[in-house]
Amino acid sequence: MAQKPRVRAPKQRSSQRRAEDEAKKRRLYLLGGGTLVAVLAVVGVVALLGIGGGEASAADVRADLRAAGCTMEVVEAVPNISDHSDFPDPEARSPAWNTDPPTSGPHYGQTLQYGSYTEPIDIARALHNLEHGAAYILYGNGVPDATVAQLQEFYADHDEGTILAPYGRLKNQIALGAWVVPGLPEASNDRGSGVLAKCTKFDEAAFGAFFDAFQFEGPESPLFRPSDMRPGDF
Length: 234
What we know:
This protein is α/β, with parallel strands linked by helices. It is built from six helices and six strands; from the N terminus they run αααββαβαβββα. Strands 1-6-5-3-4-2 form a six-stranded mixed beta sheet, with helices on both faces. Helix 3 (about 55-65) runs antiparallel to helix 6. The radius of gyration is 17 Å and the shape is globular. About 35% of the residues are buried. Mean pLDDT is about 80; it is low at about 1-5, about 10-15, about 25-55 and about 225-234.
């Protein structure tokens, strides 16, 4: 059996970029502290901007994706075994997954380090990231290099809680995936919905709409702080 290629870790950010990230994280964690008034103010801003999973935003995203020549699939989320005991191998795939790439369901017990990868990743790890509010951008081996470069540029502006990586099973397609709770009306259960978009080309507006609506909506608390990016988890 051919040896699996070693996954290359994401490049380290510059000191200026790290400072910008820290400022961004302080804004993201405003909801975790402060007074009730501050919390309500943030919620009001979010509502005005239309951020977060919901019927209206989902319809808007679907329309944007359709205009860009993409599809969007919404499925009922597949439950996960809480102690991850049924998933001892990070390279394994689960027959319970109901999308490809997966957007919910059983997964490996350790997350993947967030970043932009140039080699295939363990999708069972990345799925654990989705449970914690991440979104992924995956692309097949038939996607042109010029399009991959566009995806890398998009990732650079959306790196917080995002994974970019090749996924050969997609062939000439690009996939955007998220795990959304409480879920979308067309397909939801107590674990929410899996949302998967597939495109054959990059469209900044449509990709941005997907991220604005569905990222950071997972069933578990966020795991995208530097302290949660364990160096061994890639």
